[in-house]
Design brief:
By secondary structure, this protein is mainly alpha-helical. 76% of the residues lie in helices and 0% in strands. It has one domain: Orthogonal Bundle (MetI-like fold). Helix 2 crosses helix 12 and helix 3 packs parallel to helix 7. The two termini are 34 Å apart.
Amino acid sequence: MAFVAPYAAVFLVFVVYPFAYALWMAAKPSLYADLIADRHYLPTVINTLLFVGFGVNLKMFLALLLSGFFLRRRWWIKALLAVYVLRWLIAAAQACISFHWMLQPQGLIDGLLSATFDIDGPIWLNDRWMAVGANIAAYIWKWMPFWTVIFLAARMTIPQNIYDSAEIDGANGIRCFVHVTFPVLANLYLVCTLLSTLWALGDFTTAFVVSGGGPSGYSHVLATLGFHYAFDAARPALGVAAVMSALPVLLPLVILLMRRFQTKEVRI
């Protein structure tokens, strides 16, 4: 009992207490009435759903496809993989700052449009949907290499004789991917997608740095809107309530993830 007590104390202080305090702060029904009445909240919910839905699924699908490309045994592909992974090694804040400045007037994107097509680019971050799209693009660009490496490592564990048998049966190319690779990686793909969804729901840096919530606060996600309420509007309870309003989505995802980790009983 004495051996377990320090671990229990750390768990209570650093896990149970902060979460219980946040629930207590957000327990007032009036806070959620204020959220619904705020003109920024419902657009933020839509932005969050788009950010997570498009960002996570497109990122995971592209990562799975690219893992097959990087599996090829050519020296230049290995060199390209090293360069590809570099953008994941960059700190998220610096990567998002780069995206923000590239989208500024006369920035890199506008410069390329002007030099290549002789046209003036739009003011990217002054439109809500382009700002949300910029957040999604920055999120995919930053985190896709990490999941590509995960799927690449998983592909390398698939025995070659499985592919040889499939090739004898006439499966190659897309058919081999559909009938061999994806079924083997399906459980891993689902678990990784669930994990990525949970992390994306709490992603603060991307929207805060790339679009800054603009224009006029209409490209916020729940994490940045909660920060705005807590610090800019000096209403910390409302900020906690905004973040906690994602619990109806988070809890089913956590339960589903835990069920995927359950091991089946082995009968001898």
